[in-house]
Design goal:
The structure is a homodimer of 198-residue chains. Chain A is α/β, with parallel strands linked by helices. The first copy, chain A, folds into two domains: 48 residues, RecR Domain 1 (Helicase, Ruva Protein, domain 3), CATH 1.10.8.420; 114 residues, Dna Topoisomerase Vi A Subunit, Chain: A, domain 2 (3-Layer(aba) Sandwich), CATH 3.40.1360. Helix content of chain A is 45%, strand content 13%. Chain A has eight helices and six strands. In chain A, the strands form two sheets. A four-stranded parallel beta sheet of chain A has the order 4-3-5-6. Chain A has a two-stranded antiparallel ribbon with strand order 1-2. Chain A starts with 6 loop residues before the first helix and ends with a helix. The complex binds zinc ion (2 copies). One zinc ion binds next to helix 4 of chain A. Chains A, B: Belongs to the RecR family. Chains A, B: May play a role in DNA repair. It seems to be involved in an RecBC-independent recombinational process of DNA repair. It may act with RecF and RecO.
Amino acid sequence: MATSDVHPLDDLIQALRRLPGVGIKSAQRMAYQLLQRDREGAQQIARALDTALEAVQHCEQCHTFTVGRLCAICQDESRDTARLCVVETPADLAAMERTGAYQGRYYVLMGRLSPLDGIGPRDLGLPELLERTAQDGVQEVILATSFTAEGEATAHAISEALKSRGVHVTRLARGVPVGSELEYVDLGTIAHALSDRR
Amino acid sequence: MATSDVHPLDDLIQALRRLPGVGIKSAQRMAYQLLQRDREGAQQIARALDTALEAVQHCEQCHTFTVGRLCAICQDESRDTARLCVVETPADLAAMERTGAYQGRYYVLMGRLSPLDGIGPRDLGLPELLERTAQDGVQEVILATSFTAEGEATAHAISEALKSRGVHVTRLARGVPVGSELEYVDLGTIAHALSDRR
Ligand SMILES: [Zn+2]
Ligand SMILES: [Zn+2]
């Protein structure tokens, strides 16, 4: 649906549609809002995108977002390298960290298995995960993917692959309410689920 | 809520929250999606924002978005200057144009009265609208704002201001949408269609 004869505006609306969950109607509303009432916000978004594209990379070891080669946690030699916690996103990693109950390291999948969205094991770096658990003296892999259908499927796939290699695999206990995303769970519940892991 | 120790990422998430209807959770999802799976899209959005901020202005006459001083419609001397159609957005203007049923000119409010959002008559350029109808030989102002509470309030405010100046004001008819079956139309619409029968 063409909205005007103004090409830069139509280009902006089309560009905004690349944001997940944003259709034509939302993209229009966003473009109008930015150009009409929040030009400063538009500049802020453009600058933040440029800066993030330039600066943000993946940690070579755990794959979370970071500005250097290695993230702060992977650089921290006081962390317990025998334990590796597998999470879906950097936000989930941050939630685990806020509990203060975990001193091991992480592996961030940057997603979860989702055949419908074309996200398979390779997109989540599962081959590298298997390699890393084999090399780095990892004794326990703690699966902290979401307790959703896709998160459980992801945990299951990782669990099967690791168990066949003799790695000790645990899963956060079901103290975490089923159907919820880790990031929104209160810290006490996450801490309990961690200590009750099986 | 800090999501990581990566400042450019947090900055991006904060920036994306300036988009209308985007909360912390959506902003995170957007930032991860762009950095993880759609860096090209991120570049496209940043470039489109820069270009639009640079190029897109308001038409001096009707206030719609345009790249020059005047939009194509305001420049078109074959349009009927005696009729002025008041719409909320450039998208509404485009919808009117697609009907092919209107040959007059427009005034684009770029919004509607919304006291809760702090959008008052001055933000919609109502003083300029009154001025324009007084100057340009406008004989009829057609109110084509939305048929929502805010759109109706906007139409009412404009109507009162113009009528007190002796301008002929009309409103798009309310009624049953073409092609729809009566039993599926909401009762309020049917009631209006009945009272507006002609
Ligand atoms: Zn790392
Ligand atoms: Zn114009």
